Amino acid sequence: MTIEVALMVEGQNGLTWPRWQRLVQAAEDLGFVGLYRSDHFTNANPPEKESLELWVSLTWLASQTKRIEFGPLVSPVSFRHPALTAKMAAAVDDLSGGRLQLGLGAGWQEREHSMFGFKLLAVGPRFQRFREGLEVITRLLRSDEPVTWIGEYYQLREAILLPRPVRPDGPPIVIGGNGEQRTLPLAARYADEWNAVFVPPARFVELNARLDTLLDAAGRPRNAVRRSLMIGSVFGRDEREVERLLAGRSRAQLRDRGILVGVADEIVEQIAAFAAVGVERIMVQWLDLDDLDRLAAFANRVLPQLA
């Protein structure tokens, strides 16, 4: 079995500096291949919770770790001008020695856009803006010559990022989502990695095949895009803890929704099923930002069986 296991946390659900610093150290020490986090100004529903700013937190991580890869899952172009995102991403990637994975998205959470005055837009224009944002970011990261490019939402005129990224073409672009009409075509055109979200193995097979078809049509090799998956988790150190965390929810229904459920051996079996259908990296969503003992148990009991 060949699959990498990373950690993913929801930055809008109470992430503070002490919590982030503990989680970063845990990910570095426990053997996860990477640590990813969401990029939101606030949580989707009240009451308000702490939300540590994405790029500030990633800059700290880049300077305080040696091994793990990291990045946003994902950073919406609706929050920041893509030229600013490209400049910050290149700098943070260089600071880390080339470990940033640049996850990008169109934006979706209406509440935070309304609260802070960002324009979310209707779905069609939103994805047109996202496509233009991807053009801006990829052109700035990959061109050693000044770039002129005029779109509806963004315009570049003789623009160049200096210093140039140390990594050729800058950090890899990650596009996350399951949408067959908009997201997968953008992944086929722009992404170095496609990240599926909360799907069971059978659905991953369908989406993966669709991406292959789109890559063929775009003239890109199928192996040009890494295939990863962000997935939920209900892990317990024993059956009693699993039942407590389930709180009456059905194991089968959660697994059908793309959530890992069970003790270590069960989790390993479910991850192996994803590896068998082509998932190369799995990002395990960890919702309890303070439960590092259970996280350590996950790492110590699950990761060695996947090596």
What are the salient characteristics of this protein?
307 residues, alpha/beta, 10-stranded parallel β-sheet, two-stranded antiparallel ribbon
List low-confidence stretches: none
Number of domains: 1
Q: Would you give the CATH topology?
A: TIM Barrel
What is the helical fraction, as a range of percent? Answer: 40-55%
CATH 4th-level superfamily: Luciferase-like domain
Written as H for each helix and E for each strand, in order along the chain, the element string is EHEHEEHEHHEEEHEHEHHEHEH
CATH architecture: Alpha-Beta Barrel
Overall SS class:
alpha/beta
CATH first level: which class?
A: Alpha Beta
Radius of gyration: 19 Å
How many strands, what sense, and barrel or not for the largest sheet?
10 strands, parallel
Work out the strand percent: 15-25%
Shape: globular
Query: What does the average pLDDT come to?
Result: 97
How many distinct helices? 11
